[in-house]
Amino acid sequence: MNSSFRALLIDRDDDKKQSAQIAEVAPDQLPEGDVTVRVAASTLNYKDALAITGASPVVRQFPMVPGIDFAGIVEESSNPNFAAGDRVVLNGWGVGEKHWGGLAEYARVNGDWLVPLESAFTFAQAMSIGTAGYTAMLCVMALERNGVSPESGEILVTGAAGGVGSIAVAILHKLGYQVAAVTGRPEEADYLTELGATRILPRADFTEPGRPLAKEQWAGAIDVVGGQVLANVCAGTKYRGAVAACGLAGGMDFPATVAPFILRGVTLVGVDSVMCPVGERREAWRRLADDLDPTVLQPVTTAATLDDCARLADDLLAGKVRGRIVVPIGE
Question: Boundaries of each Enoyl reductase (ER) domain copy (predicted)?
Fold first, then answer.
């Protein structure tokens, strides 16, 4: 690796005005790490959009290459677990926030952050899944650990037309669950039904303060919204059900009572994908290879170029993007 390469670079001037543009980057500008990866594909996630637009202080240091996901081929390695030519995937670990991420032709990282890419997936398919799908799988595994099975009853998925929600619906359907999908976009009803949802519920049913205990409806739930929505989801969960919470698109507050937890024995499970231990990551990707039908990825995915990312970031934050945005780079 001797020549410069293209990257989406976020920087800010002396007045702290932020900008994002495609730049030519020299190899010696790459951050420290024991594995250099030739990126085949990356993604544009909600967190990346926050970083690119500066809508939230996601970026911890400048300049920064966003991209919390990437998949590619190891170019150079001094890490004993990886060798040149290995196919790998990365999700999280603060990449794209405090360590240069995947929206570039090359990435250099700590090899302990990498996971071998399952042979079932192409690079583009791995990024159709990305952090969103990997998080969805972690949520499904959390429900299973807490005793929720297809026989337990219906599973609720909030933010169902988004990246995590779309793939969660598809995984749950493949595993035999009945899925109720919550969305604020009624025009996506057919899309969600095709993914496997058997019931579509309007987001408006969950956004206003409700009773501490609502009618018992679902045996488990995957929530990406937080805030009032999560409070109402917990209130409607059946006795000894479980709710996996992995997002805060609706806010960080949790205006709930303890009633669902102490009167119905409901379990609220926090799911963190960023610092998740490697063993659980590998299991999640192994499960994705078994439990996610790759044919569902195509309608969930929109392709974009590196040059498109800055423009698409605004659309993503405005809720105008369905499913996943994959950014093929070197595949």
Answer: 17-327
Q: Which amino acid would we find at residue 237?
A: T
DSSP state at residue 30:
S
Range list of β-strands (E), the chain: 5-12, 18-25, 35-44, 69-77, 87-91, 106-109, 115-116, 155-157, 179-183, 199-202, 218-223, 237-245, 267-270, 301-303, 324-328
Distance (Å, rounded) from C-alpha 268 to C-alpha 281? 21
Task: Kindly give, in sequence order, each residue whose CB lies less than 8 Å from that of residue 105, ignoring residues fewer than 6 positions away.
Answer: 5, 6, 7, 38, 39, 329, 330
Average pLDDT over residues 279-296: 92
> Comparing C-alpha atoms, which of 213, 265, 267 is closest to residue 239?
265
Please report the pLDDT score of residue 48 as a whole number: 94
pLDDT at 251 over 90: no
Using CA atoms, how far apart are residues 53 and 62, in angstroms rounded to an integer? Answer: 14
Instruction: Give one DSSP letter per residue of 236-303, joined into a string.
Output: TEEEEEEEEE---TT-S-----SHHHHHS--EEEE--SSS--HHHHHHHHHHHHHHS-GGGHHHHEEE
Res. 114 pLDDT band, cuts 50 70 90 = very high
Name the residue with tokens 């677990």.
81
CA angle centred on 115, ends 113 and 117, rounded to 5°: 150
- Tokens 């952090």: give the residue: 131
What pLDDT was estimated at residue 138?
98
